[in-house]
Design a protein that fits this description.
The protein is an alpha/beta fold. It has seven helices and eleven strands. It starts with 8 loop residues before the first helix and ends with a strand. Bound molecules: 5-O-phosphono-beta-D-ribofuranosylamine (GRF). The site of 5-O-phosphono-beta-D-ribofuranosylamine (GRF) has 15 residues, from α2, β5 and α7.
Length: 232
């Protein structure tokens, strides 16, 4: 009988071979770039093994191709249902046998079955201090609310959109003269720090999703995400 049960970080990381990371994108791929850069450091515990985009014109594909990382485009057009798309996506992923999937600006809602299969082995980065501001246009919404702080969150992916257990946040102070672009650019810069850090922890076997649904770091459940404060 084939064992299709999800493998945990502990069972997949052997301490020698880098963890195989699949990155799913739809656009610029600046977070992908940060992950590639981190993976190219000496003794990085992970390698970007595959990049998949649902858009053929995603610049992130070029970023991967210029350093020889395999890419696939799986357009959502032509699939009648989300389930059919996610089944095709799962096939591409399984062929690459990743230990972890990183969603990096992948602009598709994934089906519960897909998410459940990869639960505990799929991360996302979201440009807000979750649980505040799930969904789109977070920078503008923060400015309209007059919040003094904004930021980004790395979290495990569950079926609840932007709702999975948080791991790590970068907090960014809102400045008096901010518009959505200026604020978003400062948040993005912090995303490029925290995403590779969380992936590294996972690859080192330090980070996992506990059976109680809480994030665990070094064997300890986190009651709240770890926070890095950016000065600007
Ligand atoms: C980032 O802001 C990320 O938080 C969000 O989508 C954006 C992707 O940007 N999920 P990039 O493609 O990584 O530059």
């Amino acid at each position: 009988m084939t064992d299709n049960s999800p493998k945990t970080a502990e069972t997949r990381f052997d301490g020698n071979r880098p963890l195989r990371l699949a990155v799913l994108i739809s656009g610029s791929g600046s977070n992908l770039q940060a992950l590639i850069d981190a993976s190219q450091h000496d003794q990085a515990p992970f390698q970007v093994a595959l990049v998949i985009s649902n858009r053929a014109d995603a610049f992130g594909l070029e970023r991967a191709e210029r350093v020889g990382i395999p890419t696939q485009t799986l357009s959502h057009r032509g699939f009648k249902t989300r389930e059919a798309y996610d089944t095709a996506l799962a096939e591409l992923l399984r062929a690459a046998d990743p230990g972890l999937i990183a969603l990096a600006g992948f602009m598709r809602i994934l089906t519960p079955g897909f998410v459940e299969y990869w639960q505990g082995r799929m991360l996302n980065i979201h440009p807000s201090l979750l649980p505040s501001y799930r969904g789109l246009h977070t920078h503008q919404r923060v400015l309209e609310a007059g919040d003094p702080m904004h930021g980004a969150t790395v979290h495990f992916v569950t079926a609840e959109l932007d709702g999975g257990p948080a791991i790590l946040q970068a907090r960014v102070p809102v400045q008096a003269n901010d518009d959505a672009d200026r604020l978003g650019a400062r948040v993005l810069k912090q995303e490029h720090c925290i995403y590779p850090l969380a992936v590294r922890w996972f690859a080192e076997g330090r980070l996992r999703l506990g059976s109680d649904g809480r994030t665990q770091l070094d064997g300890q459940p986190l009651d709240s995400p770890l926070i890095i404060d950016a000065s600007t």
